[in-house]
Design goal:
alpha+beta, 4 helices, two-stranded antiparallel ribbon, five-stranded mixed sheet
Length: about 200
C-alpha cells in the first residue's frame, strides 16, 4: 500500500508537469482561450488539495484550508484557476518541513476580488529576486526539506494564467516565517455574459 501510494504520488507529479508543459505551449502560442465563466474558487481549491494530499502525506505535511462558507465566484476559467492553485500548493509543499502545515486561506477583498493566500513554513524567500520567481525556468533556492528540484515552470504558469484572468500574484515572507504567495482574481458579476 505504501509503495502504491508513492507510485501514485509520482504519477501525479508527472501528470502535473505534462499539464504545465501543455499550458506553457498554449500560452506561448497565444492560443485563443474560451470566454470567461464564473468559477467557484472554494471547490477548485478543495479539488487541488485532494489531488496533492498523497504528496503531503508522503512528506508528513498537512494542507489546512480556511475559507468562509461562501465566496463570490471569480471571473475566469475553471481549468486555469485549478492550475493556479495546484501549482502554488505544489511549490509550498516542496518547502514545508515534516510535521508542519501549508496554510491555504480564501477571502473576499474590498477591491471586488477573491484572494488566495498560500503559506508554507519553510525558510522563506530571499530579500532579492522575488519577482523573478515567476519568470520561466527560474527556480527559487533549494529546499532543505525535499530532495526535489523543480523545472522553473510552475510559478510561471501561475503568473501567466493569473495575468490572463485579470488578476495579480505576489510573493513575500509571512511575519511568522515561511514564504507566502497571494493571488487575487476579480469577482464575476452576474450581468456578464456566460461562456
Amino acid at each position: 500500500s505504501e509503495y502504491l501510494d508513492s507510485v501514485g504520488a509520482a504519477a501525479g507529479q508527472l501528470g502535473r508537469l505534462v499539464d504545465n508543459l501543455v499550458d506553457l505551449s498554449r500560452l506561448d502560442l497565444d492560443a485563443v482561450q474560451p470566454p470567461p465563466e464564473p468559477v467557484d474558487v472554494i471547490s477548485v481549491t478543495a479539488e487541488a488539495i485532494s489531488a496533492l494530499r498523497p504528496i503531503a502525506d508522503e512528506r508528513g505535511a498537512r494542507i489546512e484550508l480556511s475559507a468562509p462558507g461562501q465566496l463570490p465566484h471569480v471571473r475566469g476559467r475553471t481549468e486555469a484557476a485549478f492550475q493556479i492553485v495546484i501549482n502554488l500548493l505544489d511549490n509550498a509543499l516542496k518547502y514545508t518541513p515534516t510535521g508542519t502545515a501549508v496554510d491555504v486561506e480564501l477571502t473576499a477583498t474590498h477591491e471586488d476580488e477573491v484572494q488566495i493566500t498560500i503559506r508554507d513554513r519553510g525558510p522563506g524567500l530571499p530579500a532579492e529576486g522575488r519577482e523573478q520567481l515567476f519568470e520561466l525556468f527560474t527556480r527559487g533556492p533549494e529546499s532543505p526539506h525535499v530532495n526535489s528540484k523543480g523545472f522553473g515552470i510552475g510559478l510561471h504558469i501561475v503568473k501567466a494564467w493569473t495575468d490572463s484572468l485579470g488578476g495579480t500574484v505576489s510573493a513575500d515572507n509571512h511575519p511568522e516565517g515561511g514564504a507566502r504567495f497571494v493571488c487575487r482574481l476579480p469577482v464575476w458579476h452576474s450581468e456578464e455574459p456566460r461562456a
